[in-house]
């Protein structure tokens, strides 16, 4: 069953503990990390758009140990062992996907994508907590992501253990014509999200967030924005969307 859902940014600059900027975001992510652990998850499911990507399929990472690639080595070892709960979660998800003809492709790799690696580190998710990653599809529409998320809802609600879902991603700087991501989240506006995602410059948060919104359909969303900041590249939004 679903126990917790949040959105956090994953800019690697946030890994520099001593950096002065984006303190609000750091504090917001710390709050989310605390809420996440308080929700007592048995499995963490990360939705990321930076994972190995197949244009027409979603990716399900099927491995026994994640570790972050060379680009993140300077931040120390970032790894997460896939303990039995996650293996069980993945095996069941794999057969659910087959039974429902979901375009979910299983991939064996130990490389942790930057979105997932930074989320694990920033949220201080312990190595002992099983983690699974689903990568979004680059070619499928935002609506397709929502429908796939809605299919995943059935699976997660029927899974006997507690599942927390973390969306990782950032939005580009918004023009005046577009409501900022935090406003979209606060309004819980699906149509506005679709409009945002259909822009030519696509954000890395749009597809994972659409998967998540599909998954949350029918749940009482709380949508607490903990931080809404910019750095030189992106808009960083940190928010809790659901807490059981
Ligand atoms: Zn990104």
Automatic annotation (TrEMBL):
One Pfam family named in its UniProt record: LigB
InterPro entries associated with the record: Xdiol_dOase_suB
SUPFAM superfamilies (alphabetical): LigB-like (SSF53213)
Signal peptide: none
Residue ranges of every copy of the Extradiol ring-cleavage dioxygenase class III enzyme subunit B domain listed in the record: 6-176
Entry's Gene Ontology molecular function annotations: ferrous iron binding; oxidoreductase activity, acting on single donors with incorporation of molecular oxygen, incorporation of two atoms of oxygen
Designated name of the protein: Extradiol ring-cleavage dioxygenase class III enzyme subunit B domain-containing protein
